[in-house]
Design goal:
The chain is an all-alpha fold and 310 residues long. It contains ten helices and two strands; from the N terminus they run ββαααααααααα. A hairpin with a 2-residue loop joins β1 and β2.
Length: 310
């Protein structure tokens, strides 16, 4: 099936590619206007999003385990595949998003003497969940689709078809998640861009720039890219190869480095006193190691892109 094939038998003149672009435009006009405003009281939105995520993840894991136990697995993953190396960072940058919950994990902890164990347990649980979801998928499906939830919708074997509610829920799960997070992420990005320009120009943004220009800067690039291509794997590889490395390694390391320098100037005592609950990675060596690994990763990825033309 190609992008030029009809999307529905009843509409032979409407190709799959054009239908995709129509839905992207509808999405942009439906959720795009939220970037022009502020979203307050997102508690219930976050609860609903969290519930749909847990339900979808549990559905996929349970279905995959049942089918593997029944001997329906077709996957035979390779031990290593060098030409897929850039996609590691593309996938990791989305997995890295779990770190944005770190302040919400640390802040409610009253007894700070347990902070190391609780943080380790929290992110250890995230790691286990990712591994279970990934390993069941690669061993079950021969060639998993870029959008993993679609593997449970487009199934040729009639004996493997899950209930219709499960099929459509998993197929629409990315829509649910994106619809709830896109406005929040868009508003956050708009505010960050405004703060960046105000720091550079040393003045506040005019009303027209803040309310019209900045939202358009936030909204137009992703929508334009979505209209130009639907190749998720390509986008994951590109964004992960360079922007992902910066987001995961370089920016956090430099923020820690600059923050420590600032604290040393403002509170000199904080540098000399041994804090009881400081991170086991407090030594400056870890900052340098992180940046060295980032440079090495970008070099390897660039060479990989040249060799495999990807």
């Amino acid at each position: 099936m190609t992008d030029k094939d009809p999307c529905w038998p009843s509409s032979p003149n409407l190709s799959r590619a054009n239908a995709y672009r129509i839905f992207v435009v509808v999405f942009a006009f439906t959720l795009g206007p939220f970037t022009f405003f502020n979203v307050q009281k997102t508690k219930y939105l976050q609860v609903v999003t969290s519930l749909t995520r847990w339900l979808a993840i549990l559905m996929m894991i349970i279905l995959a385990v049942i089918w593997i136990a029944q001997g329906r697995n077709e996957g035979h993953p390779k031990v290593a595949q060098l030409n897929a190396f850039p996609n590691i960072f593309g996938t990791a940058v989305y997995a890295f998003m779990c770190h944005h919950s770190l302040p919400g994990v640390v802040t409610p902890i009253k007894r700070k003497n347990r902070i190391h164990g609780l943080v380790f347990g929290d992110f250890g649980s995230v790691l286990i969940l990712y591994l279970v979801l990934a390993l069941t998928g690669v061993f079950l499906f021969k060639e998993p689709k870029d959008l993993y939830t679609l593997n449970f919708f487009d199934i040729s074997d009639p004996t493997q078809v899950p209930p219709i509610f499960v099929r459509y829920f998993l197929a629409l799960f990315p829509v649910f998640t994106l619809s709830s997070t896109f406005p929040i992420v868009g508003i956050t990005l708009r505010n960050n861009i405004r703060t960046l320009f105000e720091m550079i120009l040393h003045r506040e943004m005019p009303w027209k720039v803040e309310k019209i220009v900045l939202p358009l800067i936030t909204l137009l690039p992703p929508i334009t890219i979505a209209l130009l291509t639907d190749q998720v794997q390509f986008l994951v590889g590109v964004t992960g190869s360079y922007a992902g490395v910066a987001i995961m390694y370089i920016i956090p390391a430099m923020m820690v480095f600059c923050s420590r320098k600032h604290v040393a100037k403002v509170i000199p005592l904080a540098v000399t006193v041994r804090l009881p609950y400081r991170s086991p990675f407090h030594h400056v060596f870890w900052i340098y190691l992180t940046n060295i690994w980032a440079v090495a990763a970008v070099t390897i990825i660039t060479v990989n892109h040249i060799i495999y033309r990807k």
